[in-house]
C-alpha cells in the first residue's frame, strides 16, 4: 500500500466552491485510446474562492483550456486535478485519454464482449474525465459519440438524440442531449451492435414514450418479459404514486459483464443481462420475478433518485431505501403480497441481521466511508426500505402519499438529504417523527423481549415490552427507538378480540418508544393467543415464550397469511434451536409429533394458496439459524437442519407425494397461480428426493420438464439430497447449456452449494469449465459466491481449505475487479462468530490479504475493520 486510504465523514459535508451547470462531452471511441473532450460551464459559488479540485482516476491529461486559451495554472495529483487562479465564471475544456479495453474493473468506460459501456455510480465518472464527481453538482449534459460504424452501429447516451452523421474511414457520430440537469453518476454511454426490441407507452397525460431494449444479437425473444415489466412499472407509478415519465424515450441495454444488478442512468438504464433475458427454456420463475422487480426498481429511480437525487453519498438510502420500498410494493400489488413480504423478511432476518453483527455494521445513513462501493449494502437497501415501510405503517397510505407529494414539491430538481424526506413526511402528516429519526443514525438489530399476563378477574391482558439494541462494531451505546409493534389477539375459537384500552378501541400498531413499557388491554374475555410483530412491522428480533400449542394455533387461525407463515417459522426455530443444543451434547435429534402435525395441517389446508404452503414448508437457511447463536456451530446446524428435513420427508411422504402428483402442469405460464403451484410441487419434490423413490422421481421430473423452473428444481433436489443420479443430470445440463453463461450460472451455483464431502475440489475443477471465467462477475458469484455463502459445512471445513481458496481468488480479483472482490470477502469478515480454531484460520487469511502491497481501497476498508480489536 503506497498511501493509506483516507476516510470521509458525513459531518464534514461542505457545498462545493464552484459548480458546473453545463457539460458537453465529446467521445472518440478507440479500444485502447479513447479521447474524451469535456467542456464545462463553471460558476463560482463561494465569493473569493479561486481554486478548484476536480476528481480524476487513471486519466491521461492532454489539454486544459479556459475560455478558449491554454491554462497553465493546474497541477495533477494522485486523486485529481487542482486548477488555480480561476475567474468567477468560465468555460473549461479538458481533454483526457483513457483505455477502455484494459479496464477490467467494470467501472468508468469499459469495453467488453465487443461493446463499450459505462458504469459511473458511485464515483466512476472520474475515470472518464476530470470533474466535480459528486452528486450535488447538477449539470445539463450533451454527449457526442464517434465510433466505427460497422462494429458500433448503435451509439447511445442519456436524453434525446439531436444529431448524427457520417465520418471518414467508416466511422459515424451521434449526439444526445439530456434536458434534465443531473449529477455525473447518472451519465451513461453505450456503443455496440445489438438487437433492439421496440415498443411504446402512452402516459396518463397522453405523451408517447418510445421504449427500446437492446440485447446481444439473437436474444430478441428473451426481452419480452422485461418490456412487459417496464410498461407495468410505468403504469403502476402513475396509479399508486402519481408519477409520470418525463422524457420521450426510455432505453435499456443488457450487458453480460456488470458488477451489480442494474443502473438507473437517466433515460438509458444499463442492466446485468440476468435481469433482462428470460424465456421459459432459460429462466426460472424466480428469474421472471427478479426481472420484474429490478426493471421496476430502476424505472422508479427516475423520480426517487434522478429527479430528486442525493446531496452526498452518505444519503444513499434516500434513493435506495425508498426505491426498494417502491419496488417491493410494485411486486406486491402485481403478485402475492404475502409471498413478497416473506421473501423480504427472510433477507432481513438472514443476511441483513448478520451484517449488523459483522465488522461492517453501519446505520442506514453511514457516518464514515472509505470506499463508497462498500456501502451498497443490505442495510442501506433492505433495512432502508423497512425504515420507509415503518413510516408508511405509522402514517397510513393516504398521509404517506401526501408526504411523497410534498417531498417532490420541495425537492424536485435538487440534491436532497434523508432529513429532507423525513421532514416532508412529518410536515404533510402532522405526525411527530422526532424519535423515529434515530433509525437513520443508529445501527444494529433491536431486540424486543415481550412477556404477557392475563388477569381473568379484571379481564385484562398486560403486555410488557422491553427493547434493547446490542452494541455493534461501529457504535457501542444505543438508545431506545420508536418501534411500530403490530399485535392482534385471538380467542380460542379463532375469533379476533378487539384491542381496547380503557374501553376504547385502539390501533393494532403499538408505539414502543421506551426501553421498558407496559400496555394494558381491557375487555379481554379469555386468555388470548397473541400474534405479534405482524407483517414484520419493524426490523427487530422478537423474543416471546410461545408454547408449541399457541404457534400451531396461529398457523391455522391467524387472519393474515404472513402471520401464519411466521408462526410456522417460530415453531421450527424453537425446535431447531433446541436440537442444535441437543446435538452439541451428543444427543439425537428429536421433533415432537405435534410439530409434524402442525405442518401436515398446512399441507392439507384447502384455505391457503399453493405458493404460501410452499413458503411455510421451507426451513430457515443454515445462515439464518446461525444467527440465533453466539457461536455458530456449522456442523451441528447442518446436522439438525438435515435431520429435520429428513424427518419431515419421512413423516409427510404420503402428503408430499399426493400433492406432487395432483399438481402436474401441462403448459407453462407465468400467471401467479401457476408460479405458486410449481413452487409447491417443486417443494414437494425436494422432500421426496429424500425418500426411497428419490432417484426415480427426480430423474423423471428432469426428463419430463418443459421449462427451466422444473429443470432447475430437479437439479437442486438431486444436488441437496446427494442422489446417485446427480452426476448424470448435471452432465446432461452442462452438455445442453454450456454455450450460455447465464443459464450455466444455475449449474455453477449448484456446484458451489453442493453439500457433499470434497465439494471444494470439484469447485476448483469447475473453474476450468469452458463456460467459467473469473472476469465475469455473474460466473464468479455463482460458483465462488455460492460456495462461500451457501455451503457452510464445506466453506468452514476444519482444515481451513475453504478460507484459503477464497483468499486465493480475492488476490486475483483485487487486481482485476476490486468491487467484486469486496463483495465476495464478506463471509471471511465474520470470523468472530465461529469457534477459536476457525477464527484463527480465517484471521490468517485476512492477515495474508492485508499484506498485499497493492490492496484496493475496497478490500482495505473491510479487512481493516475486521482486524481492528
Ligand atoms: N444504483 C443502482 C441500483 O440501485 C446500483 C448501483 C450502484 C450499481 N453502484 C453500482 C450498479 C455499480 C452497477 C454497478 O440499482
Ligand atoms: Zn437502486
Automatic annotation (TrEMBL):
A biological process from GO: proteolysis
Main location: membrane
Subcellular location: Cell inner membrane
Required cofactor names: Zn(2+)
Family from the record: Belongs to the peptidase M1 family.
Domain Peptidase M1 alanyl aminopeptidase C-terminal, first and last residues per copy: 548-868
Domain Aminopeptidase N-like N-terminal: 24-186
Alphabetical keyword list: Aminopeptidase, Cell inner membrane, Cell membrane, Hydrolase, Membrane, Metal-binding, Metalloprotease, Protease, Zinc
Residues in Peptidase M1 membrane alanine aminopeptidase domain copies: 226-436
Catalytic activity: Release of an N-terminal amino acid, Xaa-|-Yaa- from a peptide, amide or arylamide. Xaa is preferably Ala, but may be most amino acids including Pro (slow action). When a terminal hydrophobic residue is followed by a prolyl residue, the two may be released as an intact Xaa-Pro dipeptide
A GO term for molecular function: zinc ion binding
EC annotation from Swiss-Prot or TrEMBL: 3.4.11.2
Protein name as catalogued: Aminopeptidase N
Alphabetized Pfam families for the sequence: DUF3458, DUF3458_C, Peptidase_M1, Peptidase_M1_N
Protein task: Aminopeptidase N is involved in the degradation of intracellular peptides generated by protein breakdown during normal growth as well as in response to nutrient starvation.
A GO cellular component entry from the record: plasma membrane
Amino acid at each position: 500500500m503506497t498511501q493509506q486510504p483516507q476516510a470521509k465523514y458525513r459531518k464534514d459535508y461542505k457545498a462545493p466552491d464552484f459548480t458546473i451547470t453545463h457539460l458537453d462531452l465529446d467521445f472518440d471511441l478507440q479500444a485502447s485510446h479513447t479521447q474524451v473532450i469535456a467542456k464545462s460551464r463553471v460558476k463560482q459559488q463561494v465569493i473569493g474562492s479561486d481554486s478548484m479540485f476536480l476528481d480524476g482516476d487513471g486519466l491521461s491529461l492532454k489539454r486544459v483550456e479556459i475560455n478558449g486559451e491554454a491554462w497553465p495554472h493546474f497541477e495533477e495529483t494522485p486523486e485529481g486535478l487542482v486548477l488555480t487562479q480561476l475567474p468567477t465564471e468560465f468555460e473549461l475544456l479538458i481533454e483526457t485519454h483513457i483505455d477502455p479495453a484494459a479496464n477490467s474493473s467494470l467501472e468508468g468506460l469499459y469495453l467488453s464482449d465487443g461493446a463499450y459501456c459505462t458504469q459511473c455510480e458511485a464515483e466512476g465518472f472520474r475515470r472518464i474525465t476530470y470533474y466535480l464527481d459528486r452528486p450535488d453538482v447538477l449539470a445539463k449534459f450533451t454527449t457526442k459519440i464517434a465510433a466505427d460504424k460497422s462494429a458500433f452501429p448503435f451509439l447511445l447516451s442519456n436524453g434525446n438524440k439531436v444529431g448524427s452523421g457520417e465520418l471518414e474511414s467508416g466511422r459515424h457520430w451521434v449526439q444526445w442531449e439530456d434536458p434534465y440537469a443531473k449529477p455525473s453518476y447518472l451519465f451513461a454511454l453505450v456503443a455496440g451492435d445489438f438487437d433492439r426490441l421496440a415498443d411504446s407507452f402512452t402516459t396518463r397525460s397522453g405523451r408517447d414514450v418510445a421504449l427500446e431494449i437492446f440485447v446481444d444479437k439473437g436474444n430478441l425473444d428473451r426481452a419480452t418479459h422485461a418490456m412487459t415489466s417496464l410498461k407495468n412499472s410505468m403504469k403502476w407509478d402513475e396509479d399508486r404514486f402519481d408519477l409520470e415519465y418525463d422524457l420521450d424515450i426510455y432505453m435499456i441495454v443488457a450487458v453480460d459483464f456488470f458488477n451489480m444488478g442494474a443502473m438507473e442512468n437517466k433515460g438509458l438504464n444499463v442492466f446485468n443481462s440476468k435481469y433482462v433475458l428470460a424465456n421459459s427454456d432459460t429462466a426460472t420463475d424466480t428469474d421472471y420475478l427478479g426481472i420484474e422487480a429490478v426493471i421496476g426498481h430502476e424505472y422508479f429511480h427516475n423520480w426517487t433518485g434522478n429527479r430528486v437525487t442525493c446531496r452526498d453519498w452518505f444519503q444513499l438510502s434516500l434513493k435506495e431505501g425508498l426505491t426498494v420500498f417502491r419496488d417491493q410494493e410494485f411486486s406486491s400489488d402485481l403478485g402475492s403480497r404475502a409471498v413478497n413480504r416473506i421473501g423480504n423478511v427472510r433477507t432481513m432476518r438472514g443476511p441483513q441481521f448478520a451484517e449488523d453483527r459483522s465488522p461492517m455494521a453501519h446505520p442506514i445513513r453511514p457516518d464514515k466511508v472509505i470506499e463508497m462501493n462498500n456501502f451498497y449494502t443490505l442495510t442501506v437497501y433492505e433495512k432502508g426500505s423497512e425504515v420507509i415501510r415503518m413510516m408508511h405503517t405509522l402514517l397510513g397510505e393516504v398521509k404517506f402519499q401526501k408526504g411523497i407529494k410534498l417531498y417532490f414539491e420541495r425537492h424536485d430538481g435538487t440534491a436532497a438529504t434523508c432529513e429532507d424526506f423525513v421532514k416532508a413526511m412529518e410536515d404533510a402528516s402532522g405526525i411527530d417523527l422526532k424519535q423515529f429519526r434515530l433509525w437513520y443514525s443508529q445501527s444494529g438489530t433491536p431486540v424486543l423481549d415481550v412477556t404477557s399476563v392475563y388477569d381473568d378477574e379484571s379481564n385484562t391482558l398486560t403486555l410488557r415490552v422491553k427493547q434493547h439494541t446490542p452494541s455493534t462494531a461501529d457504535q457501542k451505546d444505543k438508545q431506545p427507538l420508536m418501534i411500530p409493534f403490530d399485535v392482534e389477539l385471538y380467542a380460542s375459537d379463532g375469533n379476533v378480540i378487539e384491542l381496547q384500552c380503557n374501553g376504547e378501541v385502539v390501533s393494532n400498531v403499538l408505539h414502543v418508544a421506551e426501553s421498558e413499557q407496559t400496555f394494558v388491554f381491557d375487555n379481554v374475555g379469555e386468555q388470548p393467543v397473541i400474534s405479534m410483530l405482524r407483517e414484520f412491522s419493524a426490523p427487530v428480533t422478537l423474543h416471546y415464550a410461545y408454547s408449541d400449542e399457541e404457534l400451531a394455533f396461529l398457523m391455522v387461525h391467524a387472519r393474515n397469511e404472513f402471520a401464519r407463515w411466521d408462526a410456522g417459522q417460530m415453531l421450527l426455530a424453537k425446535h431447531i434451536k433446541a436440537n442444535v443444543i441437543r446435538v452439541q451434547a451428543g444427543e439425537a435429534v428429536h421433533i415432537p409429533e405435534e410439530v409434524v402435525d402442525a405442518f401436515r395441517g398446512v399441507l392439507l389446508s384447502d384455505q391457503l394458496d399453493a405458493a404460501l404452503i410452499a413458503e411455510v414448508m421451507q426451513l430457515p437457511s443454515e445462515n439464518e439459524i446461525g444467527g440465533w447463536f453466539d457461536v455458530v456451530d456449522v456442523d451441528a446446524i447442518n446436522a439438525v437442519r438435515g435431520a429435520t428435513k429428513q424427518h419431515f420427508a419421512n413423516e409427510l411422504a404420503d402428503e408430499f407425494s399426493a400433492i406432487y402428483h395432483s399438481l402436474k402442469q401441462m403448459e407453462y405460464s407465468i400467471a401467479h397461480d401457476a408460479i405458486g403451484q410449481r413452487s409447491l410441487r417443486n417443494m414437494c419434490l425436494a422432500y421426496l428426493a429424500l425418500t426411497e423413490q428419490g432417484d426415480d422421481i427426480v430423474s423423471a421430473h428432469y426428463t419430463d420438464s418443459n421449462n427451466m423452473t422444473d429443470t432447475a428444481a430437479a437439479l437442486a433436489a438431486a444436488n441437496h439430497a446427494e442422489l446417485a443420479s446427480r452426476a448424470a443430470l448435471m452432465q446432461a445440463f452442462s452438455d445442453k447449456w454450456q454455450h450460455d453463461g447465464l443459464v450455466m450460472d444455475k449449474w455453477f451455483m449448484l456446484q458451489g452449494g453442493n453439500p457433499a464431502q470434497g465439494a471444494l475440489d470439484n469447485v476448483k475443477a469447475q473453474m476450468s469449465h469452458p463456460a467459467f471465467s473469473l472476469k465475469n462477475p455473474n460466473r464468479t458469484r455463482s460458483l465462488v459466491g455460492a460456495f462461500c455463502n451457501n455451503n457452510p459445512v464445506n466453506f468452514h471445513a476444519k482444515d481451513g481449505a475453504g478460507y484459503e481458496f477464497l483468499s486465493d481468488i480475492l488476490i486475483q480479483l483485487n487486481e482485476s475487479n476490486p468491487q467484486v472482490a469486496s463483495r465476495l470477502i464478506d463471509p471471511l469478515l465474520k470470523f468472530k462468530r465461529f469457534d477459536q480454531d476457525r477464527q484463527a484460520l480465517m484471521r490468517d487469511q485476512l492477515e495474508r490479504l492485508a499484506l498485499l502491497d497493492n490492496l484496493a481501497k475496497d478490500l482495505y476498508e473491510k479487512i481493516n475493520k475486521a482486524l481492528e480489536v
